[in-house]
Amino acid sequence: MSAAAAPAPVPQPPPAFEDRERVRRELEQTWDQPPGLVPWLTSVDHKSIAKRYIVTAFVFFVLAGLEAATMRAQLARPENNVLGPDAYNQFFTMHGVTMMFLFAVPIMEAMGLYFVPLMIGARNVAFPRLNAYGYWVYLCGGIFLYLMFFLNTGPDVGWFGYVPLSGPEFSPGKRADVYAQAITFTEIAALVGSVELIVTIFKNRAPGMTLNRMPLFVWAMLVQAFMVLFAMPWVATATQFLAMDRLIATHFFNPAEGGDALLWQHLFWFFGHPEVYIIFVPALGFVSSIVATFTRRPVFGYPVMVLSMIATGFLGFGLWVHHMFTTGLPQLGQSFFTGASMMIAIPSGIQIFCWIATIWAGRPRFTVPFLFVLGFVVLFIIGGFTGVMIASVPFDQQVHDSYFIVAHFHYVLIGGAVFPLFGAFYYWFPKVTGRMLSERLGRWNFWLFFIGMNLTFFPMHQLGFEGMPRRVYTYLPETGWGDLNLLATLGAVTIATSMLLFVINVVKSLRAGLPAGDDPWGGETLEWATTSPPRHYNFEYPPVVESRSPMWESGPEMPVVTGLRTDVRDTLVTTLLDAEPDSKHRHPNPSIWPLLAAVATTVLFVTLIFTPWGAVIGTPLLLLTLLGWGWPRGREKWEQQLVESEA
Amino acid sequence: MTASGMLSLIQQSHSVLNPSSPQARLIDRLWDAMYLVSVIVFLLVVAALLWGTFRRRGPEAPETDPGRERSLTTAVSIATALTVLILFGFLIYDVAVGRQLTRGFGKEALQIRVIGHQWWWEVQYRDSIPKNWATTANEIHIPAGRPVALELLSNDVIHSFWPPTISQKRDLIPGKDNSLWLQADTPGVYRGQCAEYCGNQHAKMGFLVIADRPDSFASWLARQRDTALTPTTALTRRGQEVFLASTCVMCHAISGTPAGSRIGPDLTHLASRQTIAAGTLPNTRGNLAGWIVNPQSIKPGTRMPPNQLDPNDLQALLAYLESLK
Known about the structure:
heterodimer, A: mainly alpha, 20 helices, 5 strands, B: alpha+beta, Immunoglobulin-like, 5-stranded mixed beta sheet, 8 helices, 18% strand, elongated, disordered N terminus
């Protein structure tokens, strides 16, 4: 980071029109990303990268959905023959791994990577090249996983990969290695994303956007990013232990050699439970944004909302043992985790109460994003209640690993995260593309999704009670599970139809949707202050923030920062708490090195599956690309002058 | 008991919500309470949401009127306080149930060892005199009305023991001794299934808990302790020869014969069991034949290999196995 010792810029009234035109022309030139393959591969624009992230994650969402649909076809009737056990076990593992690692976490971070800089009035994320690297690693990991799946080497040990089943003795072949390494890829991407978000939020906020004026969405992404930062290393440790057990015969998890099978479960769930909140907390941010805009008032109880999200972030790390209530841990210790698991319902409840209060006090507009928020509240409460129930040790010991759990977490994850996400798609699509999505198709999308979701997952509560365990590829006719399973399969068809409508809506609207304008909904936050779609430089002049609702209280005539150079990629760095102008940060130009480094990373990880020599081949390659990435390019003329004048 | 009779018995007693034991009943009551409270709160919250959304709005004071903000604060605070109270109620009730479930069960409890295998259950009735040990598979006979302490071990990967109507579940973890006590109120057949994903045939790793009247349990156990019946007819003698001369002996044991391998289920009293292939098929001659000849078509991936037997040998083998009462 090069921080020039220029005098700190000061807020100014909006400059005159001619100035704006000149600044716009220069910024266009400086931040330009011409069409073509090479600029595309070297892009460091957070919006381009986040868009790719979102599209890629959505493709994985569709793939995982197709896997789910195939499983539902298999389970529609007892002793069905759509998938055999070997294929089914790969399918349910791929469904889980894809949804968790390739869809949910990346798409939530991608939404943050797109909108956080816009909402805080920044030109880009803090480390644009690292951001590109994160995406390329994620893409390579996803392609690698699906390539192996199509080669019939997809993981078949469950997304939770319990040892010893995933260990060398009971999973010979490469499937479990593919599992461990695919997770490593996504861990790196997720960590990169979280570092980007934290630093961008802390250091690149518009002047005046003190911490207590930050939009709730930005708070949500900040909490999520910290959770990623503290959760991912645990699963990285676990999967690396597993990879070592499998590749070089260590015995971390082998009880016969002093290892421990339960160690894996502790490590995995110490990540795995926060993971749920990593997915859910950004959704809280979407909901707050949508509720505020469509009730035309700020969300009620801002400090309580922020504290609730932070509390969720902390408590999320204290619950992992509730995934292990049947492993025979001591009763007293388990009670602690029951208490913690029930406690986390409190911040969730408070937020729901605050939104209801906001809606009550505001004037709701029944747009599609708002419908998705209403659907979210209803579904999430159901998932929340079953969550409180399974926090109870005795009750959980009955329904653990049964279809009751499948029902529970789909209510939490689809109701709690995917519904807000779709609301967010409809809400921000105009900003990203400049065109509105069709409201009519959107309503069909919503209602089919809502009905299909309940049709699929509500019967599963009962199936769990009737003794149907999870992860079974079939069941016997005399179990009596056939009818409810058929109902669930019909629900899955309904969901698939709603998704098809969404895709049609997107394709149609991209071509011929209504032009959106800069601020079609009358939004509260800064992303609506710029063009739709935003330029590569986001804002001609970084805005200056005077309140929590800059668009409503300052409007289009809000004061701005002038004095930043337009011929180089200058951005403003502000202080952490009060967002006072601090220094300037020269952003890097496009570069191919992030992509090359990601490819080298991929070579390292993939070869390591097959031989320990992979480290010998891959590490120098990776170091070489990092060297290229960091190679000094020499100073520009003005920098040289500055250094000389100081000397 | 006929196969269909057995299955209808299972169907009657299948669900967590249809408990047949003191433990399952405690949990069922806990569920009832949580369910009732949840439904009420759910309806209240959804009603508040819908009312807040659709209420008639007149020309109103500015959106951040201090009086209205205060009343909103009161409403949110009351709702939060109620949430905390309800959660505390749940917590206390839950811990109380947990304590009752983990209470000791006294010396009168019958000890049974259950060992999980991919993908079947080994069941051992141990005794201070080793001669009196009895080993069976996939069917756990217990005396009705008496507590039973299960010792749960695993030989390979993690499994989980779960007969929903009479007990909560407990994992079988390699390198860790787990235990669980259960008790069935009335004689009957209670179906259960492995609940922890354990590989290829996790779906077909069922078992039956068969609660007998105490006297019939005692006679059942006495019979299980005996060595296998010696074949008495020419056909069954031939069948025993086929068994001992084929690959069967690589994995299976029949006490009183040289076959002593413990890799697969003990077949000493195979004919006394109601199902084969871990609760997957009724134990009939046809099913047994199909299982021996081509087990992979019934449980793809099972450790049991297909067996190409001469038809006459197969008939003799079946006759022998069916004589192992």
